[in-house]
Amino acid sequence: MILPIYAYGQPVLKKVAEPIAPDYPELQELLENMWETMYNAQGIGLAAPQIGLPIRIFLIDTLQLEDGDGTGETNGLKQVFINAQKIEEGGKLWDYEEGCLSIPDVRGDVKRPAQIRLRYCDENFVEHEKVFSGMIARVIQHEYDHIDGILFTELLKPLKKRRVKRRLENIKKGQIEPDYRMRFIR
Fold it and tell me: What integer pLDDT is reported at residue 104 of this predicted model?
């Protein structure tokens, strides 16, 4: 089922999400709905707070970013992250233009470290600890920020923040027409 994505201004987007237990009700159905919602909105990541749930779940699919060079090799990742905990970040800081399904039509350069070490459970509650780098690390960091109540717009340079302020207010008021279902503050 395609769920509405919570828009900028919704309080759940600013909360630090809570961990869940393996017996979380209807977890597999929730994950299926999150995948369907993310793909419907043409996203590459989605966190539970973006669908109104203050829990520590996010998923990513960077395989979609592959340019199909015909070699059969992929550098992307399709993964569920449950109860993720950041262990460390490192490597060179690099800028890249980011966007967010909760903040349609707003984009901006965000500086992030090139690597992240994460401890998390997969959809079967098997624990993993891995280092991710490059674009995968960036997408994970963006989604991880969601479960910590941080939006990418908070990481923009001051001038860019001022430039997007009016658009953010319009999103908050529901004065936009996104291509996917959204829930606004009314």
Answer: 96
